[in-house]
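Q: My collaborator sent me two sequences in one message, no labels, and asked for predicted structures for both. Can we handle them in order? The first one she listed is below.
A: Yes, handling them in the order given. First sequence, followed by its structure tokens:
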Amino acid sequence: MYGKHFESMYTGSMFGAGMNVFAVWGFAIANKGSDGVVEINPPFVASALGCGVEDVTSAIEFLCSPDENSRSEDKDGRRLLKVGSFTYEVVNHAKYVGMKNAEDRRRQGRESQARFREKHGGTVVSSSKQIVINSKQPVINSKQPVINSKQSKPIKIEDEDKDILKPLSSKLDGTVKDLFSFWQKTLKHPKAILSADRLKKIKARLKEGYPPERIKSAILGIANSPHNMGINEHGKKYDDIELICRTGSNVDRFADMETTEAVDDWWQTDEGGKPIFGIDGQLMPREDDRP
């Protein structure tokens, strides 16, 4: 395991507590499990740190004591709670792991957008109004997208889709094709086909009353998700329009992610709104964001 040391640790109420306190606290941060519990056996830790057993014992006593000047009011400012013979709970584990992951997600979001710009050229503009995909291509407006005539190709409609298209009005038919073409060009899937499953999901969201502009915002927003753009354990992109339009909640979540401030909505939370962590101590992505 590992843990980050925040600079506030050295400027807060622990200031001047002594090297043994900072050494033992660093050991606790680096060795705590995903549940925030760490084993601190004084003779073992003393040998690892190269200090006396009494130094470790006094440090543990300090870290388990109330601190009225602490920035945290949890457990009266205590940093450790004894839960067993040599086991202790790091009081603010969830808080600081959450801060760590929020920082990492912002960094990943910036890196993801940088790679997107490098791959596609031009500048990505996070706005519900427009996105510039390439300086040589026209500006795509969410209300009236402009398609480059040299790059646009007729959308192939499979035989199994024809029955689905029959009940569509000509206006709705054109809207579905427009949204699919917008997704193809925005996320670079020129060879994708408007298959039955994709058609069904797009049509369902439009019939529910979702405006085309909202669905386009969701298409733009999914590009801000590191997980969906390939930064995941499989190294695979999950940006299909079928996933975007699979449910109304998916449309709303991805549309809200058009601005990077919405990244916190990518992660699972419990009934109390607290983040859920996996066995590796990392935040868990929402299951319905996965294919």
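Q: And the one she listed second?
A: Here it is, processed independently of the first:
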Amino acid sequence: MKQRRIAVQEAEVPDIDIDVQMWDELPDEQLGVADDLGWAAIHHAAQKGVLHIIERAVAYNNQLLEQKTVDVAAVTPLLLAVQVNTSSTLRRTLRNIP
């Protein structure tokens, strides 16, 4: 199976199991709160294909799909979903574009 490359180094992305538990506990309004590199829970969820977190964030504020990181990559959750190309995540993410 061909591996997909994305602009983000693996070291920047914590263990998905820990993230999902942490994200599930966050109030909706905090799913778009970014760290000093501009990465928020919605960015990590889009990169990992964690659909229910993306849906929660977008239901709260659909503009979060276009929230750019402030690192060199300057990626949005939508772009991450495209790069990862998880078909169900991408399809359902695209439905939420205003």
